[in-house]
Amino acid sequence: MGYPMAGHLARAGHEVSVFNRTPAKAERWVTEHGGRAFESPRAAAEGATAVFTCVGADDDVRAVVLGEAGALEGMSAGTTLVDHTTASADLARELHAICAGRGVGFVDAPVSGGQTGAENGQLTVLCGGDGAALERVRPFIDAYARAVTLLGPAGTGQVTKMVNQILCAAAIQGAAEALAFGMKAGLDVDQVLDAVTKGAANSWYLEHRGRTMVRDEFDFGFAVDWMRKDLRLCIDEAVRIGAALPATRATEEAYAKLQQRGDNRLDATALIRLYTQPHDEIS
Question: Does residue 281 carry a pLDDT above 60?
């Protein structure tokens, strides 16, 4: 997702330097958008007003931000680090403290809207951190966002993203069961979708993914691996704060079964396969 997000920054007229752990991707981005590619996060961050990271998980963030070659080593006091990764709230708090010790602003800013939202510059950005730091980088974020909200201190952006993912997982689980049920009943599911998406049962997933779910098309979007990773973050945080997530736990287990089947890189809506293409161990 960082690839198109950085592209929007370049198109908005900002001078953009990039780093990717796969150098060929960074070079391809430069060919398309201009700017410069660097061999380390530190080198890319040197002289920058703001640094944006968008990687996979906590360990990936640490790898590109911390250490001698990390972005933070190239940043000066008064600059701001924005992490768009969906990661743990604990990591956000950790990075906020480290950045504060160096006079660097920090915003945890996970995004919602998926690959399509990134490509269209229509992401929802859920922010935690200091309001002044967010205002310094707001003109940059506006290049690829439709909504930017400060939810509270460091970590609250990540916790709000967990709320978002709990809701998304429930919507996908419901759509998967309902559509598989309709198919098993012999209904014209296209006609069913036309009907139910005009009523109270509608959701983004029914409207935008319902037909691809029925057609068993999943070569796009937000991967099963990433959805399970996000749900694990939700469950870990729920344990920390004493919250009950029974439905989320059941959905996380369903995604584990998809991974065991080898469907790791398919879109998260491939959950319907557990009900339309059941293996013997699936009840």
Answer: no
